[in-house]
Amino acid sequence: MSVYELDISWAATTNERRRLRWELLACEKVLGVFLTARDDSVAVLFAGDRVGFRSWAKALEPGPCEARS
To answer: What domains appear along the chain, each with residue ranges and CATH number?
Structure first.
C-alpha cells in the first residue's frame, strides 16, 4: 500500500466533483483520501502498485465524448 498524488484538476464542475467522490468511495483499493496544499490534487492511500494506480486514475477522467455540465 502506498500514497499517490491524484490530479483532480479535471473535476471543475459540481457534477464532476460528485462523481469523483463516489468513485473514490466505491474503489476497494482506495483506503484513504487526504487533502493537499493544492486545490487540484489529493493524496490517495492505494492498495496496489503504481501501474495499477495510474490505470485506475486514468479511468476516472472523463473522455473527450463525455458532456461537461
So the answer is: 2-60 (3.30.70)
